[in-house]
Amino acid sequence: MIGIRSLLLAGLAVSALAACSDPKFDDSSQFGSNPVLPDPKQFLVPPINVIPGPGWEKGHTPDVAAGLEVKPLATGLSHPRFLYVLPNGDILVVQAKPPSEPVKKPKDIVFNWVWGSAATGKGGAQPASKITLVRDANGDGKPELETTLLDNLNAPFGVTWVDGTLYVANTDGVVAYPYAPGQVKVGGPGRVLTPLPAGIINHHWTKSLVASPDGSKLYATVGSNSNIVENGFDAELGRAAVWEIDRKTGAAREFATGMRNPNSPAFYPGTNTFYVVVNERDEIGSHLVPDYLTSVRDGGFYGWPYSYYGQHLDPRVRPQNPAKVAAAIKPDYALGSHVAPLGLAFYTGDLMPQFKGGAFIGEHGSWDRYTPYGYKVVYVPFAGGRPSGKPVDIVSGFVDAKADKGFGRPVGVAVDRFGALLVADDFGNVVWRVTPSGWRPSVQPQTAHAT
Fold first, then answer.
1. What is the share, in percent, of the chain residues with pLDDT greater than 90?
2. d(CA 136, CA 121)
3. In this structure, what CATH number is given to the domain that contains residue 412?
4. What is the Cα 331 distance to its own chain's centre?
5. How far apart are CA 201 and CA 68, in angstroms?
6. Which of 1, 225, 243, 333 has its CA at 20 to 30 Å from residue 294's CA atom?
7. What region, left, alpha or beta, does residue 254 occupy, with left being phi > 0 and alpha being psi -120 to 50 degrees?
């Protein structure tokens, strides 16, 4: 029987060897509404490329686009994943200890090691499931207060506030807490509004959350329990979907399906249309399948697991379902293959007017490519309420130029009350703040936050 160490080393050796022969490919051809999709490939061992530490050294920061500067807002955190700005300007930093998963086959050993390596950073506490409140009332980037708002949570990710209630999306359900902005502790015990699919196998565990513009509904994302149903269809009940939840009663239904791992739903400003970023499937090539940004239609089906990027059949899935493939909706906008988008925020502020109306996206970065890809925050311009044009790198430098050292990995993004961009870095255990170069706050803060 092949030992665990031998299996890991064999996988890495195959990936390293193949890295030398990675075919040239124009990655920019996979941006936008009509990405180039090469033929799928078969692998004995798929590409596995995890960049080791060391994390951020003192004084070392990411790179930013021309005219911008970046500084740490909060450090020493414990796996910060999601950010939410309350109406009073306080910033909630959601930190999560991922739930453990059972090991069923040798492949699980490899991938659990991959994901564990990709999630272990430097300079913070051990991963813990809690929400930290950060208060920077004067906008100078030096918080007056940093305190635990909630702890002992169950692998939280999404959070939103509506009419005196803070809603937290744990990995197994949405919990409601009485809360008024300005409080530094939650005002009472939580109540479960609705459960969400979890279970012993809980592969894509992050559950995102957003409230509808009128506050009557919540929308929660639930990722798949596998890459392409290798755990069986029963393990996928209710998953790879966006759920709609009645905020008063907790009644829930599947709003849209067929999205392998959707995250960070956000309503486009001034509309009732929300978008998600989606992590597509792995193990059919470095350049398949592009992850994407898409609007979400009520009743829409987006292909997973039967097809990708519309009606491109995935032959690995058995049994096949031609009717489902025929109904699959093509996503709005490709972001590139395996960039792993997890954060999405539309910009509504005035501090950086060049970004108004577009979307910031946090790309956690690849593992299923010979050469690392993603590991940055990009800006996607919009025109007429739709994504338009190529993505622009805004925050990068999370890996070194040789791609053999990792410093951080961006996840959630948000916009603070002054219009600055916030970035949660779960490997670096930092929240970064991006402003125009040399900017200093005025007496009166601007009203600007992520939608």
1. 81
2. 25
3. 2.120.10.30
4. 17
5. 42
6. 225
7. beta
Supply the pLDDT for residue 22. Answer: 55
Residue type for position 324: K
Residue 3, domain member (yes or no): no
109 confidence band (pLDDT: 50, 70, 90):
low
Q: What is the pLDDT of residue 193?
A: 98
Taking the C-alpha atoms of residue 253 and residue 251, their distance in angstroms, rounded to an integer, is 7
Give the model's pLDDT for residue 444. Answer: 55
Query: By 3-state DSSP, what share of the chain in percent is helix, strand and coil, each rounded to 5?
Result: 10, 35, 55
Backbone φ, ψ for residue 135 (5° rounding): -115, 120
CA angle, residues 218, 265, 162, in degrees to nearest 5: 35
Whether residue 20 lies inside any domain: the answer is: no
Helix H, strand E, coil C: the string for 116-183 is HHHCCCCCCCCCCCEEEEEECCCCCCCCCEEEEEECCCCCCCEEEEECCEEEEEECCEEEEEECCCCC
Q: Distance (Å, rounded) from C-alpha 412 to C-alpha 211?
A: 17
- The total number of structural domains that make up the chain: 1
In Å, how far are 90, 151, 166 from 147, measured between CA atoms? 11, 11, 17
| Mean pLDDT, the chain, integer | 90
Which residues pair with residue 5 across a beta bridge?
none
Domain boundaries, position 137: 37-436
Q: State the DSSP H helix or E strand holding residue 323, giving kind and residue range, or none if neither.
A: helix 322-327
Does pLDDT of 143 surpass 90? Answer: yes
Tokens of 307: 């097809």
Q: Would you say residue 10 lies in a domain?
A: no
Q: Answer whether 255's CB lies under 8 Å from 240's CB.
A: no
What DSSP state is assigned to residue 418? T
Count CB-CB contacts under 10 A for residue 6: 10
pLDDT at 194 over 70: yes
The per-residue pLDDT for 450 is 44
Render the burial of 37-60: b for 16+ CB within 10 Å, e for the rest.
beebeeeebbbbbbbeeebbeeee
19 part of a folded domain: no
Tens digit of each residue's pLDDT (9 = 90 or more) over 369-392: 988 999 999 999 999 999 999 999
What was the pLDDT predicted at 101?
67
Higher pLDDT, 442 or 101: 442
